[in-house]
Design a protein that fits this description.
The protein is mainly alpha-helical. Helices cover 63% and strands 5% of the residues. The chain has three domains: 38-62 and 320-508, no CATH class; 107-267, no CATH class; 513-752, Hypothetical protein af1432. The strands form four sheets. The protein has a four-stranded mixed beta sheet. A two-stranded antiparallel sheet has the order 1-10. Helix 19 runs antiparallel to helix 20, helix 25 (594-614) packs antiparallel against helix 26 (619-627) and helix 28 packs across helix 29 (688-704). The protein is elongated, with a radius of gyration of 46 Å. The two termini are 40 Å apart. The relative contact order is 0.08.
């Protein structure tokens, strides 16, 4: 039997164009056909993607050569395309600058004004003391006036000042001490210079500059020490004079040397500018690396200098030459986007026809390109390029084939624009493929994190292979691996953050969400088991059938199973009107007209859809609820209505489900599993042969009615679905004794249920 999609099963002539989706009526072959058949929305997404890629790189002057890596063997001579200077390594250059700056000692200046002010304060203090002595008042009043001068002194010290001879002797020693200290120089930041490693300072005094050792200068702490020694030498005969001297010396002590920051920085800037930034000059045509030579670190520095000179020349060139890199990016991005669109059109036509899905793919790619441009702008390692993020998002949201295609397109655009080396492209490609493999068909959250071990291993193996091949080993290899692992774990964390956002914005349903919905303890399913236990068990059985059938034909078995769990949740509104929930007794439909009964049965689809939207179930689950009956005719009630109407016309539209028909293979499987489970339940003394025959009858009836026309099932897949149902239903419907009441209930279920295609013949 020829295998082809079922929607073509009743085509009797060359009507190929009739069944093509709108917007795809041109011949599928040829580039011209592809271009002519692109709807405006898809063209807008493609153009917008290319434009945004260009905008992400407009501020960057990243016109790079494709440089070899250290340790690589070049195949041809590399010659200088123009004259350029070989720049020093940045670390070496900065060390030379630091060494030259260290040769410039800090500049300090003697503040003559500070010296004069300090000596003036000392003289004024003793003048005030003389004035107090001249008052010849009471000792208590003189002590009070000394305190009012604001100089903190002990009572013993004030007694020394009130003695004329002692006061004159003290005055001479204080003046001599400060003349000597200020002449030597007092610093306030001596510890700062010592901590900075400076042992000499440049001292400017009265226009003359001297180089002095920092140990020859004093700070306030040393002034106190010097005051103690000076006092002991001068007043060894009087303890009171010594204490008074120390009190005055520590009070009036003040620095008279100031750090000239501007002069020091100016001298250091002059030294910095004198350090040459280059080590050599290459002339146009001069050989940089010979053919079959191994690239060394020195060669890399020369090539980087050439690249920087090229960027400077590009900046200085005319407007048209500045436009060339952008034109190159435009052509590269447009070519990759076009080839990706051709791939989707040929191998994923349903995805190609969905503008929302195409927009999501564009967003994923632009996130990767945007993060890569930031990495370039901040000068970070290329091993941080988020290829793992792009691969994981595309694979989880779509499938592994789309994941590989999106990852490949992202790497092509990035490699061309960034000028990535071949070893780096090899690493990113291997890591991206590993990430796709790791999360393909993801059904457990722990497997998501386990995939990171595969990705980490891919980084280690690919980087090690490339570096060992080019004889680059040691610390550089470990640094690359560290950046790669950082990118992997960062990408995985970011993917887990943005996945729920993408699912919500773009109405996507991932396996992770389906796994959460498959939990039978969720409130919605718990309510179903309590309010409609028969429907609940029926749904579980349909879920098992759907999962097995989906696995048999390669469909999404998890989506089929979860959709089956929720397909009949609308029956919770009126559970007693559905035979699986009737424990016996009167059938409620016996008291209703056929049209009302049909409306009650039809309502469970509408009720289920509204409940699913209220509970914010994914769009795929809502579609399964809406489509699991398609536009099936409830033949029993339709024929009953015709028999009651006599000769009157009864429109069959009143007895059909509103649809739509299943549009995916998973929803078609749910429809077939639903009818197969219900039909086999009505069998008396079921055997494997009877069950198989009933399954083939009811599922083929769905095909004959055209309920499968809008999905992509083939005859071969239909046969596999039927065969997958047989062992499960045989096991569930094993032969046992049937009692008369049970037989009548099962016959009533088969009649009242909405699955019977043909009514019983009239007697």
């Amino acid at each position: 039997m020829k295998i082809f999609p079922m929607r073509f099963s009743r085509i009797r002539g060359p009507q190929k164009d009739r069944d093509r989706p709108k917007g795809d009526r041109s011949h599928p072959g040829g580039i011209g056909g592809v271009l002519r058949s692109v709807p405006p929305q898809r063209a807008g997404i493609a153009v917008g993607t290319v434009v945004l890629i260009l905008l992400l790189y407009v501020p960057l002057q990243s016109d790079k050569f494709s440089l070899p890596t250290e340790g690589q063997i070049v195949q041809e001579d590399i010659l200088a395309p123009f004259d350029f200077r070989v720049l020093k390594d940045e670390g070496e250059f900065q060390r030379e600058i630091a060494a030259e700056e260290a040769k410039v000692p800090p500049v300090v200046r003697v503040s003559d004004e500070t010296t004069r002010d300090l000596m003036r304060q000392i003289e004024q203090f003793f003048v005030d003391v003389e004035r107090i002595l001249d008052t010849e008042g009471e000792a208590e009043d003189q002590h009070r006036m000394l305190r009012e001068l604001g100089v903190p002194m002990s009572e013993a010290g004030r007694n020394v000042l009130l003695d004329l001879a002692s006061e004159q002797r003290l005055r001479e020693e204080v003046r001599s001490f400060f003349f000597d200290m200020l002449d030597r120089g007092v610093l306030s930041e001596k510890e700062y210079f010592l901590d900075g490693g400076y042992d000499r300072l440049s001292l400017i005094k009265q226009g003359e500059e001297y180089m002095v050792g920092i140990d020859n200068l004093l700070d306030l702490e040393h002034v106190s020490v010097e005051a103690t020694e000076w006092g002991r030498t001068s007043f060894e005969d009087s303890r009171a004079l010594l204490n008074a001297f120390f009190e005055l010396a520590t009070y009036f002590a003040a620095p008279n040397l100031t750090f000239d920051v501007q002069e020091t920085e100016a001298r250091r800037a002059e030294r910095r500018e004198a350090v040459p930034a280059h080590t050599d000059i290459y002339l146009k045509g001069q050989k940089i690396i010979g053919a079959h030579e191994r690239v060394s670190g020195k060669h890399i520095q020369v090539l980087r200098s050439m690249e920087q000179k090229w960027a400077e020349l590009r900046t200085e060139s005319g407007p048209w030459q500045s436009f060339y890199p952008h034109a190159g990016r435009l052509l590269a991005a447009a070519a990759v986007v076009f080839l990706f669109a051709v791939y989707l059109r040929r191998h994923r036509p349903k995805l190609y026809r969905s503008d929302v899905r195409l927009l999501l793919i564009s967003v994923i790619g632009l996130i990767g390109v945007g993060l890569t441009s930031l990495i370039t702008a901040f000068g970070l390692s290329y091993y941080l390029i988020p290829v793992v993020l792009v691969a994981m998002l595309a694979t989880i949201l779509f499938d592994d084939h789309v994941g590989i295609a999106v990852t490949g397109a992202f790497l092509m655009v990035t490699s061309l624009i960034e000028g990535l080396s071949l070893p780096l492209i090899f690493t990113l490609g291997l890591v991206g493929a590993t990430a796709v493999y790791g999360v393909a068909g993801l059904r457990e959250r722990k497997r998501f994190w386990q995939s990171l071990f595969y990705v980490g291993g891919a980084y280690v193996i690919s980087i090690g292979a490339a570096d060992f091949l080019h004889l680059v080993t040691g610390e550089e290899t470990l640094v690359k691996i560290g950046y790669g692992l950082l990118s992997a774990f960062g990408s995985a964390g970011l993917a887990m953050i943005v996945l729920p956002l993408f699912e919500s914005l773009f109405k996507m349903t991932t396996n992770i969400t389906l796994l959460e919905l498959s939990d039978l303890n969720r409130p919605l399913l718990k309510n179903l088991s309590l309010l409609a236990p028969g429907t609940y068990h029926h749904s579980i059985m349909v879920g098992n059938l759907s999962e097995a059938a989906a696995e048999a034909i390669g469909a999404n078995s998890l989506r089929a199973r979860v959709g089956a769990y929720y397909h009949d949740i609308g029956k919770m509104a009126k559970p007693d009107y559905f035979v699986e929930n009737q424990a016996g007794g009167e059938n409620k439909h016996d008291r209703l007209s056929p049209k009302i009964s049909a409306l009650v049965l039809i309502s469970h689809v509408r009720e289920g859809t509204e409940l699913a939207r209220k509970e914010r179930l994914p769009a795929d689950i809502i579609d399964a609820i809406r489509e699991h009956h398609g536009t099936t005719l409830m033949a029993f009630f339709y024929e009953k209505a015709r028999s009651l109407s006599g000769e009157g016309e009864v429109p069959d539209s009143d007895f059909r489900y509103p649809g739509p028909k299943p549009k995916t293979r998973e929803n078609a499987i749910i429809m077939l599993a639903d009818v197969a489970e219900a039909a086999t339940r009505a069998l008396v003394d079921p055997t494997r042969g009877k069950i198989a025959q009933r399954i083939f009858e009811v599922t083929n009836a769905k095909f004959e009615e055209g309920q499968l026309d809008d999905c992509d099932l083939t005859f071969r897949e239909l046969r596999k679905i039927q065969e997958a149902f047989v062992p499960i239903l045989t096991s569930a419907m094993h032969s046992r004794i049937r009692y008369p009441d049970e037989i009548r209930r099962e016959e009533a279920r088969f009649a009242v249920g909405d699955l019977l295609r043909k009514p019983p013949k009239k007697v």
